[in-house]
Write a structure and sequence with these properties.
With 232 residues, the chain is mainly α. 62% of the residues lie in helices and 6% in strands. Helix 4 (63-77) runs antiparallel to helix 5. It is globular.
Length: 232
């Protein structure tokens, strides 16, 4: 059957593993709902409309409402934090009122954008007037504030020890946090199901590693099975 013993672990051949996978049937409707969930949660409105038309899969939400959420996200990803805050307050002012950590991260991003623009004096004033009181009220924010203000000590901020704050990825991180908060306020899922399933796959492989030697998926992007090493 292609199985043997490698130490205390069972060895499962690629052929046997592929046969088992071929025996698993996932309904197409379930796959379509998974795709639609990803498109809706991530805000790909036009793609969701096209997918609904082609597959007949209902989005389960008003797609027009997604546009407002995406405008907030685009503003933040473009560095216009003030506009993003105004837009989210128009959607639901309680979102930022009830989430001090999210509000701090938005203000932190405003400070980063001031530093990016070379406005040192404005950055210092903004930090003192807006971020310092938040850190005083919530001491857990102090370390992040200190890291951000430290950018002002370097001429080349991107090459500094805290240069990661200047990366586009930092904007994306804050945008994702805000996007999740809006979704939660609208009683929608905060994260698409697909990434959660991939995390579950990695967890399951880690558990199976303790019991067997088997074909693994090493690269999630390609999903190619890597055959188990041959026994000596």
């Amino acid at each position: 059957m292609g199985r043997g013993e490698a130490g205390n672990k069972k060895t499962i051949s690629l052929e046997t593993w592929e046969q088992k996978l071929a025996g698993v049937r996932v309904p197409k409707e379930d796959m379509n709902r998974l795709v639609m969930n990803f498109l809706v949660t991530e805000g790909y409105v036009e793609a969701a409309r096209m997918f609904e038309s082609e597959s007949g899969t209902a989005p389960g939400v008003n797609l027009d409402a997604i546009t407002d959420r995406m405008e907030v996200r685009r503003a933040l990803q473009g560095g216009d934090v003030e506009s993003a805050i105004e837009r989210v307050n128009d959607l639901d002012p309680e979102i930022l009122d009830k989430q001090p950590e999210l509000f701090f991260h938005l203000q932190q991003q405003r400070l980063i954008e001031l530093i990016r623009g070379g406005d040192t004096e404005g950055a210092l004033d903004f930090a003192a007037e807006n971020l310092a009181p938040l850190a005083e009220e919530h001491p857990r924010f102090l370390e992040e504030l200190e890291r951000t203000v430290a950018l002002l000590a370097f001429e080349d901020t991107k090459a500094s020890p805290v240069g990661d704050l200047m990366d586009v990825a930092q904007r994306q991180k804050t945008a994702s946090e805000l996007n999740a908060a809006i979704l939660a306020a609208q009683a929608q899922e905060r994260e698409p199901r697909l990434p959660l399933l991939l995390k579950l796959l990695l967890w399951a492989q880690a558990q199976l590693d303790e019991r067997a030697v088997y074909p693994r998926i090493a690269d999630l992007a390609s999903a190619q099975l890597v055959p188990p090493p041959k026994a000596d």
